[in-house]
Specification:
5 strands, 33% helix, five-stranded mixed sheet, Ribosomal Protein S5, domain 2, alpha+beta, 4 helices
Length: 128
C-alpha cells in the first residue's frame, strides 16, 4: 500500500493530504467528510479531482486542515488531493490542469494600511 502526501493552500487555509489505496473513505481532522463539511457543494468541490478521473472509490484520503474559512479549506483540500494524484499518476496532470485544479489561487486579503479604517477605505472627508 503506497502512501502519497501533498500540501494544498488557499487564502489562509492549509491542507496536508495523505492518499492511500482503499475504499474511498475521506477523513478530515479525524472526522468524516460529511461531518466536517455539512454543505453538499463543499463536498463536491473537495472530490472534484477524484470524480473527474473516476478514482473516488479507489483511494482513502486522510487530511489535516488548518486556518481559513470553510470555503478556503475546501479549495485547499482540492488542491492537495490534485497534487497527490499527480504524484501517483503524472499522466493525469494535463487533464487536471485543463479543469483548473492544478493552479494555486494566489488571491489573499490585502493588508490594512496605517491611518485608514481598512485596506482601501478612507475616513469620511469633511470640508469644514
Amino acid at each position: 500500500m503506497e502512501l502519497v502526501n501533498a500540501i494544498g493552500r488557499r487564502k489562509e487555509a492549509v491542507a496536508r493530504v495523505y492518499l492511500t489505496e482503499g475504499t474511498g473513505k475521506v477523513t478530515i481532522n479525524h472526522k468524516d467528510i460529511n461531518e466536517y463539511f455539512p454543505i453538499d457543494i463543499l463536498r463536491v468541490v473537495v472530490l472534484q479531482p477524484l470524480t473527474s478521473l473516476n478514482l473516488v472509490n479507489n483511494y482513502d484520503i486522510n487530511a489535516n486542515l488548518d486556518g481559513g474559512g470553510f470555503k478556503g479549506q475546501a479549495e485547499a483540500l482540492r488542491l492537495g488531493i490534485t497534487r497527490a494524484i499527480i504524484k501517483l499518476f503524472p499522466e493525469h496532470k494535463s487533464a487536471l490542469r485543463a479543469q483548473g485544479f492544478v493552479t494555486r489561487d494566489p488571491r489573499v486579503v490585502e493588508r490594512k494600511k496605517p491611518g485608514r479604517p481598512g485596506a482601501r477605505k478612507r475616513f469620511q472627508f469633511s470640508k469644514r
